[in-house]
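To: structure desk
From: M.T.
Subject: fold request, one chain
Message: Could you run this one when you get a chance? Sequence is below, nothing fancy, just the single chain.
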Amino acid sequence: MTTIQIRIDEKTKAGAKKVFKKMGLDVSSGIKLYLARVAQDKSVPFVLRTENGYTPEQERQMIRETEYAEKHGKRYSDIDELMRDVFGKE
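Reply: Done. Structure tokens follow.
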């Protein structure tokens, strides 16, 4: 058996404690359950998201597309030129 110490803010700990209690677990048991699942699956048991709400791969793809568009995309000198190109109107 080993010991793990973590630092976490009180609000997060209290919220997790409430959830675990509803499941009949204490915080320590809940964390043990989580770590056992990580070890079993060799991954975290949920989808990781960036601060923008996207998966890391989605965010990398958006960055690649943006970089491509900035390098190869069409440029307009003013809004009228854009509107003519998009709507085909004079």
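Reply (cont.): Residues 62 and 86 are 23 Å apart (CA to CA). Let me know if you need anything else for the meeting.
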